[in-house]
Design a protein that fits this description.
Length: 202
Amino acid sequence: MLAPIRTSVSRTVARSSSSSVGRLSAGIGARRTLVTKEERWDLNTIKQANEQNLIPDESGKGGSDLTSSIPSLEARWAQLSKEEQYGIFRHLEELQRKDWKELSVDQKKAAYFISFGPHGPRKAITQPGQAMRTMVGVSAIVGATVAVFFGIRHFAAPPPKTMTKEYQDAMTEKAREEKLNPISGISSEGYKGKGYEQKSLA
């Protein structure tokens, strides 16, 4: 009785796991990163690394000797070809299958850098000093905009006479004399508005 139930549960878990992996793979493939085509590892990279004998076998033997590139790998990584990078990755991958106590400090540092270092998808979006350059550029643009604004205002024609306070006060008095809008407007009882007064452009 329990055997069919276990089989059914196993199949359900397997289907859900495979679908989850498929969605995860699709998400990773669709995710936008800063990795350029020249930096990305693909099947062609693996093929060329195999042809150049850069990949060790499962025992960790074989492949070209890339151990000289492991010390200070962080500084050398960008200068290595994609095939050499992949070869070092596979070399360190095989080393990590053994007892970690046997790994040297340089090998541990190199393994950490390949897994978590600022390269590939983890490469910084901005370069050092970018914040200061952005601030200086924005400040320069804002300063130029302010200078152009006040320059135009300085050389522009003077505001029309209808925008002077004296002219607007005279319009308000004339409206009261002619009793314009006596119910709720400027000539109404208890009117406390500004009448025709507007902000002067002068």
